[in-house]
Queue: 4 jobs
Job 1
Amino acid sequence: MTGDPLDALRLPIVPIDPRPEFAAALLRRLEAREEPALGRGATVRYFVDDLDAAVSFYCEQLGFEEELRPSPVFAMLYRGELRLLLSVPSEPHALPDGTLPEPGGWNRISLQVSDLDAAVRALRERGARFRNEIASGVAVRQVLLEDPAGNPIELFEPSAGYHERS
Amino acid sequence: MSTVSVRYIVNDVDEAMAFYCRHLGFEEQMHPDPAFAMLTRGDLRLVLVSPVPADHRGGGSRPMPDGAKQEPGGWNRFMLEVSDLDATVDTLREAGIRFRNDIVTGVGSKQIMAEDPSGNPIELFEPIRAEARLEAS
C-alpha cells in the first residue's frame, strides 16, 4: 500500500517538553501590553514659526506623513513609531508670565538612515541647512539638520560596534 | 526594540539618569562614558549627553564648527502620556520636581511641562480626546 507521496516532504512531528519559563515570559509580555503609553510609539513636540513650511519639510524631505492639521497652529505627523507634533507658539503654550515657546535649542529627534553621505547630499541639493558637517562618534556617524524654523534633527548612520538592544 | 530616538543635552549625565529612571520610569540601557547614557521607556530611546570638547570620542555633543556649544533647555520636548495627570503632578511636586507652568487644558489633552535637573522640558499629558491617545493611531 502506498502512502501519501507528500509524506516525503513533511517534517517529522517531534514531541517537545513544555517550557514553563517560555509560558511565563509570554504571559509577562501579554500583560505588559496593558500598561498605558508604553510600547505604542512616542511623541515629540517641536515649535515652528511657519506651519506650512514645516509640514512640507518633514513630509517631503524626511518621510513623515500628515495625520491631522485641525488648525493653523497645530499639525500631527507620523514617521514609523514617532508622532511629531508641530505647534506654532500661541497663547495656550505661553507660560504663566506670558513667555511664549520658540523654535531652536539643541534637544532633538534622531532619525536613522542607511547611507548618511547620500542622505546629506540629497538634502543639500534640495536646499536643506545643516548646523555642522558629518561627525564620527563611537558607534555612529551623525549630522545636525535644521528644519525651516531652525529646529535640529539628528541624522545618524550606525557604524561598526553599533549596539541596539532587541 | 525602541524605535524612536531622542537626544537631550544635559549638564550632568549621572544626575539626569537618576532623575529619568527614578521619577519617570526610564530604564538604563548603557552608560559607557561619563558624558553619554542611553535610557529606554517603551518605544522611546532617550540619549543623554553632556557637552564635550571637539576632540572627544563621542560625536553627539561636540561644539559646532563655529564654536557654538550645545546646551540644555529650549522648548522642543518629548511627551509622556499619563492616565491621571493631577496625581502624577502631585507625586512629582512632592519629590521636588520643577514645573514651568501649571496644568493647561488644551484641545486634545491636559498637559504640563516638567523640567529635568538641567532645565530641559518634558511634557506630561493626559488625553481627553481619542485622537490624542497613542493607541488611537
Note: The longest helix of chain A spans residues 20-32.
Job 2
Amino acid sequence: MTGAPAPAYQLPSVRRSLRLVQRNAMAYRHAWIAIVSGFFEPVFYLGAVGFGVGQFIDSIPYRGAEISYASFMAPGMLAASVLNGALFDGFFSPFFKLSYEKTYDGILTTPVNLSDIVVGEVMWAVMRGTVYAVGFLSVMVALGLVLSAWAVLALPAVMLSGAALASGAMILTATTREISSLEKVMTLVVFPLFLFSGTFYPVSLYPDWLRPIVQLTPLYHSASLLRGLTAGVVDVSLLWHVLYLGSMFLVCITVTIRLMHRRLTD
Amino acid sequence: MNATKVVARNAIVFWRGWRSSIFLSVLAPVLFLTAMGLGLGSLVEPNAEAFGDAGYLAFFATGMLGANCMQSGAFSASYPMMSKLTWERNYEAILAAPLGVRDIYFGELAWIGVTLAQQTIPFFAIMALFGIFDSPLAVLAIPAAILTGLGFAAAVMALTATLQTDEAYTWLFRFVVTPLFLLSGTFFPINELPAWGVVAAQLTPLYHGIELIRGVTISNLTLLAGLAHIAYLLFFLAAGIMLGIRNLTHRLVS
Amino acid sequence: MPEEGVLIHAAGLIKRFGDFVAVDGIDFEVRRGEAFGFLGPNGAGKTSTMRMIGCTSAPTGGRLSVIDMNPVAQASQIKSRIGVVPQIDNLDRELSVRENLEMYARYFDIARPEAAERIDELLEFVQLSEKAASRVEPLSGGMKRRLTIARALVNRPELLLLDEPTTGLDPQARHLVWDRLYRLKQRGVTLVITTHYMDEAEQLCNRLVVMDKAEIVAEGSPRELIAAYCTREVLEVRLSDDNRERLKGSVDGLVERVEWLPDRVLLYAETGDATLAGINDMGIQIETALVRRSSLEDVFLTLTGRTLIE
C-alpha cells in the first residue's frame, strides 16, 4: 500500500463512456432547439451556394465524370458540418465544462474516469453528427444530388470523420487554457480548413505547390471520401482517406487522454 | 460626452490583445479572398449581366464586406453584451458612477462601430490590393458597411436588453442572420430567387447595405437609388437605437 | 496491516507540489462509524489530505489505505464505496436537481428503479423535494450544498468525506447541514470532515486532529484536547492601554495562561468569575468582560499562537 506513482492513464470502458452520452442527451433535453436547428444550417448553405451560385457554374469535372456544382458541393458541406459539430462537441462544450463549470470534477469522484470522459464526449460528437448527416443525406437524395448507391456507405464515413475530427478537437480542449485562444484557433486553423479543403471547389484548381499541403489536412479527406461515395466514383484511392481518418482518430484520442491526465493530475 | 468613458474602458481591455487581433483581421480576408478568388472565381462563368463587369470575385467580395459587418455587429451585440449585462453585471458598477443609461448605450454602440471599422478597413485594403476597385469613390464602401453593421448591432442590442438567457440567440443566428447572410445577394444576385423572395429580400437591411456598397464600387448607382438605400439603413439604425435605449433603461433602472 | 474496523489508515503521508510541501508526513486513523475531523486554518493541508483520501490526488510519499485498498491502484473501487462533498461545489449546471442525482446514479451503475427510490428518499432527506425540477443556478448556497450532500449519498457510501461543509453558509443553513450529518452518523455512516470552525468540530466530531502548516499538532476528542491544552474556562477582557500594562505587571499567579491578542486579552483559569473578581480587587479597570468555556479555538491558539480564522 505504498504511494506508488500514478499510472500514465486509466483505461476507458464503453459502458462508462456511454454515461457521458447519456448526460449530454439529458442536458440537451432542455435545449433541444439547439439540436434541431443545427440541421438547417448546412441545408441553407446548400441552397444558397450550391444552387444559387451553382446557376452560374457549368458542370464540374470530377475524376473522369462531370457532375453539377450542387452535387460537388453538397458532400463538402456535409463534411464541413461534421467539422462544425466536432468543434462544438469536442472543443467548445468540453472546454467550458472543464474550465468554467467544473462539471468534469463532479463526475471524477465516481467510477467514471478521465479516459471515459474523453471517449464519451467523442462518442457524443459522432452520434450527433450522424443524426444530422442522416437528415442532410435525405435532403441530398430528395434534391437528386446523390448519384450512386455507394452513398449508403456515406453514413459510416460520416461516423469515421466525426470520430477523427472530434478527437482532434479534443486535443484543443486538453491544451487550451484561456478563452481568448478561441479566436486564434478559429481564424488560424478552422477558417482556413473550411476555405481550402476542397469543400466549395475542387483542389485541382490549386497550384501544384498548394495541393499536397491541403492533402495533409483532415477536412480534405473527409470531404473527398464523402464525395467519392455520393458521386459514385469509387475506387481503391478512397481507402487512403479511410486510413488517414482512422489513424487520425487513434492517434488523437490517445494523445488527448494523455494530455488530459497530465492537465488534471496534481 | 460620458459615452467616451465607456469606449475608453473597452479600448483598454482590447488594447491588451491588439497585436493578435489586428493580425487576425488582416489574415482572415487575405485567406478568404485567395480561396474564393482561386476557387469559386475560376468556376463561375463570366456573366456581366448578373455580376457586373468586374467579375464574380468582385461581386462576391463586395457582398461579403457588408455581410461580414452584419454578422460581426450582430454577434458583438449578443453574447458579449449579455455577458456584461447579465453574467458580469458591469453596468451596475458603471451606473454607480455618474453615467446614465444613454451614455452606456452610445458608448457600447460606438465601440462596436470601432471594431467594425477595425475589421472592415483591412478587408477593404486587401480587396483594393486584389484590384477589385477602379474608382476612388470606392472608399465610401467602408462607411456603408459600417452603417449596415451598426444597424444590426442596434437591433440585436435591443433584443439583448430584454433577455435573461442566451437561448434566443440560437434562433436569431440560425433562422434570421444565416438566411439573411445567404439570401440578400451576397453570393448570387437576388433576381435568382422566386418572385416573392425578391420582394422579401428588398425589405431587409443587408440587401440595401450590399447594394449601396456595390453601387459605389462595382456597379452604377444613381444618386436617387443611393440616397434611398442610405435612408433605409439610417431608419433601421434609428429604430434600433430608440428601442435599444428604451429596453436598456427598463432593464437597468427599474 | 490496519486492524479491523479501521477505514482509513495513514502513515507518514506526504504531498508535495514541486517545492511546496502541502502535507508533511502525517499519521492518522479513522475508525468505522465515527465522525473524524481535521481542524485547522486555511492552507493547513486539510484539502490536500482529503483529495488523497478521495483518490483524486496521488500521495507523494508515505502510506495511505482507504477501506483496505490502495487509493492509487484501486481508485475506482474505492470511489464506488465513498461519497465526496467538495469545498467548491461542482454540480452539473445543465441539469435539474433531480437529473443531477439521476446521472450520478447512472455513473455508479445503479439500476433505474432502485435509483428512483433512492433519489426520492434523498431529496426528502435534504429537504429539496420541492426543488426537484429546478435548475441548479437559482438555488441558494445552502441548497446547493445540500444537493451536493444528497449526490454524495446516492451510492450509499460507507464513508463520507466533507471538505469545509458549511463554509459560506448562513447560520440557518449551517444548522440544517449539521442536523443532517448528525442523522447520517446515527445511521452508521463514517464521516470525515475538514473545517476551520471550532463549533463545527466540537458539535460533530468524535475525534479530531489539529492541523497546521502541513503537520498534525494534536489529536484526540474535543473534550480531551480542551482538557489537555486549556483550562476549563476563559475570561476575555478588553481594556485601555494603560490598564493593559498594569495587567501585564500583576497577572502572574492569578491565572494559568494569558494570550495577549491585539484587541483583547484571554485569561485562562479554572473559573473565570473568580479571576474577574481578582482583577477587580487589584483595581484594574476593564471595559468589557466575557466568561466562557474553553473551545477548540483556544486549543489551536495554545498550540500555534495563532487563531483558526485569520
Note: Chain A has one domain: 14-43+60-264.
Job 3
Amino acid sequence: MTNILDTPAISPPSPSELDELISRDPLELSALDIDKIIAMQRNYRAQREAPKGGRKPKAPTQTIDLAAALGLVKPPSVITPPKAGGLRRI
Amino acid sequence: MQIAAEHIAPSEVRSPFLPGTNIQYAWSSTTLDLLKTCPRLYEYTVIQGWASRDESIHLRFGIEYHTALQEYAIARAKEINHEDAIHDTIQQLQGRVYDWVVDRSSRAGKYKNRESIVSLVVDYLDHFVDDPAETFILESGEPAVELSFRLELDWGPKATSHVEMDGNLMEVMSGEKKATRIFDQPYLLCGHLDRIVTYCDNLYVMDHKTSMSTLSGYYFNQWSPSNQMTLYTYAGNIVLHSPVKGVIISAAQIKLEEPNAFQRGFTYRTPDQLSEWTDDLRFWLGQAEAFATANYWPQNDTSCGKFGGCKFREVCSKSPQVRETYLAASFDRVDPLQTANNPFFDRSSE
C-alpha cells in the first residue's frame, strides 16, 4: 500500500566504490578483485566500529560542597540515643 | 502419528492443492503461519497470490544469504580454510547479484541490495570464523546444510478418504467399527532446514534470519512458541533419527551506518510440546479443509495489528465490494506456485 509517510525524505545514497566493484561483469573480475571486495568491506567495518572522531577524555569528577561554597555551613547533626521504651530494631 | 520422510528431487515444482480444489495437502511453516494468523491473510496470499511489491526484494535477499552461507559451510566441511572459503563464497555471490538492481529509495531496497548482501555475508562469516556450533556431518559424509524435508503424515484431507471394509472400497461411513480409513493423498509437511549443528554435545537446527530491526530479547521471544521452530525441531528429529533439542536462531541485523550486528538465541522443544503441536495440527488442517470446501476464509480481525500491522490491513478495512480494486492497486498478483508460498518451491530454482 503506497503511503506518503513511507517515502523517504532524503534521496537514495549514491553507489559506493564497493557497489561499483560488485556491479561489474563477473567475467571481467579477477581473483584479486574478489579479494579487494572482501578487504574493502572489512575496511568499512573497521571504520564503522571505530569511535567517530575519538572521544574526549572525561574531565576529572570533583565533588563540590555547594553549601560550604555559599557560606551556608550547617551544624553537624546530633544522634540521640533511643529512650527506654522506644522501638528498637532487632 | 506415523511419518514417512521422502527424499526430494530438488527441481520438482507441483501444486500443493488437491486437483481442481483449494484444499491444500502439502504444507510448509509459511503457509501454516498464514492460516493460523488469519484465514483471510492465507486466502489473499496462498490462494489468490497477492504479494506486496517489496516481497521480491526480501525473497531474493534471503535466498542469496542462505545460499552464500550454505556454500561457505560446505567449503569449511571440506576443510578449506576461512580465507579461501570466504573468497569462493563471495565470488559466487558476486556472480549471482552483480546485475541485481533494486529501487533504493524504498525501505526494502535501501537495506537489501547487492552491496548490503555482500557486506552482510562477509561480516557474518568473519564474525563466526570460530563458530562454536559445528555443522553436523550426515552418514553420507555430506554436511547437513540446506536439508529439504518432506514428511508424509498418516492422515490426509477428508475429501480424499474412503473406508476399506472386507476388502472392498466403500464410501466413508461413520460408526463402522471395522472400517479402515484410507487416504489417497496424505498430508505432507515440507520445508528446508538451514543447517544442523552440534553445540555442547546436543543437536540443534540452526535457522538464519535477517532483520532490519534491533535484535533484542523481544525479537527472540517471538520464536517461543513458534509454529515454524516447532516444525523445524520436529522435522530435525525425523530427518536425523536423533533427538534435536530445538532451534538456534542465528539472526543478522542489517545496519546502514553502523556495523552489522549478529546475535543467536535458543528455543527448545520437549517431546510433549512436539506432540501437542501435531495434535493441534490435525485441527488446523481440518479447519483449512473446511474453509476451502466452503470457499470462504474468514477474517481474524484480532490479528490485524500484530507484527507492525498486516500488509492487507488497509484492504480489509474497506467495504467488501471495493477490496478487489484496492488489492489490484497496491499489490502484484503472482502465480502462487512460483513463490516461496508453495511448499514445493525450491529455493535454488529462483
Note: Residues 31-49 of chain A form the longest helix (19 residues).
Job 4
Amino acid sequence: MTEAALEHARLQELVAAFADGELPPDEGHAVQAHLRGCARCRRELALQQELSRALAKEPARGASAGLRRRIERIGAPAPGRSAFLWKRRWAAPAAAALVLIGIAGATALRSRHGQRPVAEIPIIRDALADCRRVMGRNFPRKADLQAVAEGLQFPVRPLGRPGAELFSTWKTTLAGSPAAGLAYRWRGIVVVQYAVPTELIRQQPEVGEALRGAGFYAASEQGQGIIAFLEGGSGTVLVADVPPEELRRLML
Amino acid sequence: MKAEPKRACFQSSTLPHLDRLVTLASHWADGHEAEDDVQETYTRAWIAFDQLRDVGAAFPWLCQILRTVANERRRTRARRQELVFITGLEAAHEEIVASDAPSPLDELLARLEAGRLREALRSIPEDFAEAIELHDVQGLKYREIAQVTSVPIGTVMSRISRGRALLAGLLTVSDEKRAKQGVGT
C-alpha cells in the first residue's frame, strides 16, 4: 500500500467524527485538506451527515402519564404503601389489595398482639423494610428456588397453595441472619414470603409467645398483613397488602 | 442530604430527562418493558443519587444506569430476532461511496416513513446501533458515550462511523429487495 493510500485509510476513519464536530483542530484540518482531493471521502461525509440529520428527526416516544406519576412518587416521605413503586403490571393487583384493606376496616391497621409495635420486633421490622425495598425495585426478575436455598442452613419451602404463582426469589438478611425471599402472585395480589431459621423466629419478642400459644403470629402495619409460623424445619414470615386473616389461608 | 431537599434536587435534575430516557429505552425494549426499564432506572438513580457529583451530567449518568438495567434484562431474553449479514452491507455501502452516480440515500431517506430509520438501526449489530442512538438520537457527545458504554473514545468514533456505513448499506439493500418484490417503502 502506498503512503497516500495509507493516509487515505487513516483519514477516512475520521470522516464521521469530522462530520460530528468531534475532532481536535489539527486532525480536523487534516481531514478538511484530504476532502478537497478525495471524492470518495466527500461522499462518505455526505452520507454520514445525511444519516445523522435523519436520525435526529426521528419521532421521540415520551413517557406515559402513568410512568411519570410513578417516577414522581420516588422518594416520597410516607413509609407506607404510597411509597411503593408498582410496575404497570402490578397496578390492578395493588388496586384489588386496596379494596380488601378497605373492607377489613380500621382494626386491620393495628397490631393484633399486645401493645408492642412491630417496629420493635427485629425480624418483622426487617421483613417489612426488605419487602418495601424489593417492591420499590420491582422484584428480582428470576425465580430460582435452588439458587436462593443454596448455602442456607434451613430448608426453603415454597407455598404449596393452588393459585400461588412464584415469580421472584432473592437472598436477604433479616434480624442479622441470612434469609430467603420469595414473591408470589395470589388472587390478584402480591405475597412475599421469607424463609428464616426456626430458632431465630422463636427468639423474637411477641412472636415466640404467639407461636407457643396460638401456633402463629399475626399483625398489621400500615395496611400490610403479616403472619409468622413454623413449618417443615424453618420459620416463615408472610407479608402482603391484605389483612392477616386472608394471609392465614396461605399457611402451609 | 435530608430527604425532602434531596427529593426536590433529584426531581429537578432527573425528571426533565424522562421523555428522552423512554425514547432511549425503546431502542432496547418494546412497549411496557421500555417503561419498566426506565422506572427501574429512576429507582436505582434515587438510591445512588448522592454519588452524582455534577447534576449537569445527570442525563449521561441516567443513560448509563438505563443501559445496565436493559443489559440485565437482555441477558435472560435475546430480543434481536434477525441480525443482518454485515459483509453484504459493507459491500452496499462501498458501492454508494465509490460510485460517481448520485447517492440513492437522499431520495431513499426522503420517502422513508417516520420511525422506520430507528427500526432499521435495531437491525445492525448492537455496539454500533447503541453508539449511533446515543449520538444522533439522544445528542450525547463522544466522550459522554465513552463514559456511558465504558469504552475508549476511539472505539466510539469507530462504532459511529462504521455503524452509519452499515445503516446506509442496510437501507439500500432493503430498498432494492422491496423494489424487486414490488412493495412500496
Note: Chain B touches chain A through 58 residues (CB under 8 Å).
